[in-house]
Amino acid sequence: MMSTKDFQEIATQVKEYSDYIYLHVKGEPLTHPYLKEILDIAYNLGLQVNLTTNGTKINEVVEILFSSKALRQVNISLHAIVGLDDEAKKNYLDNICNLIERLSVEKKFFLSLRIWIENDEINKYIIEYISKRLNVDINIATEKIMDNVFLSFEEEFSWPNINGDIISNTGRCLGTRDQIAILANGDIVPCCLDGNGIIRLGNIFENKLETILNTSRFLTMKSGFENGRVVEDLCQRCSYRLRFEKN
Is the pLDDT of residue 247 over 60? Predict the structure, then answer.
């Protein structure tokens, strides 16, 4: 768990480079005991927050989310439904539908439901349940359910593994170009898929962000992606970046 003191220090440096921060990276932000304080810090620094969650704790923090002035978007990855029994599936989707119904009235932030599951039966169940519960006509081609509420359909992906097979050493990615990730211990990595800190580009508590963004390793990696070269071993084994090449 990142402390509020560390978050304040990091966010103060980050605001010089971005208007947005994303609370995730292989973790569940809604379990953080100081979520409200973190959102308040972001607001006081003029940062807008996008938050990615599996949605299982929505009911416990819903008032914090609706009261936050910093929150811009909530992404709910619906993978959490996989493996639940029938009753738990219904409770899970009912809580999300309750959120949608409130959001349709208050419109405090955007909501994206990520259906990135390679299981047609589960996808069908999710779509039909939400359609019936909200009395809206949605299908796999639907992008917008109502104002501020969207569906996102993508292929399910595998987390990159440093011991996995090399996919290619050519291609492009947004890592280091449009985004970086900062782990709870301050380690900086190129993107949220490196939650284990394999590509440790530096540590924000040891060096300023400006210094890290100008190191040889960072610039070599960034230049590589700009020119269609994948230089890091982990990135060569990452299939997620292939969707950027398609786009």
Answer: no
CA dist 35 and 2 (Å) reads: 10
Does 129 score more than 80 pLDDT? Answer: yes
* First-to-last C-alpha distance (Å) of the chain: 35
In the chain, beta strands by DSSP E: 20-23, 48-53, 71-77, 110-115, 144-146, 149-153, 181-182, 187-189, 202-203
What tokens appear for 24 in the block? Answer: 């995730």
| Whether the model pTM is above 0.90 | yes
Cβ(53)–Cβ(74) under 8 Å?
A: yes
Average pLDDT, the chain: 94
**How many CA atoms are closer than 13 Å to the CA of 144, on its beta-carbon side?**
5
Helix, strand, or coil here: 114?
A: strand
Q: Give residue 25's identity as a one-letter amino acid code.
A: V
Report how far residue 211's alpha carbon sits from residue 6's, in angstroms, rounded to the nearest whole number. 18
Q: Which residues contact 175 (CB under 8 A, 6 or more apart)?
A: 190, 191, 221, 225, 235, 241
Buried b or exposed e, range 95-104, using 16+ CB within 10 angstroms:
bbeebbeebe
- 8 A C-beta contact, residue 151 and residue 157: no
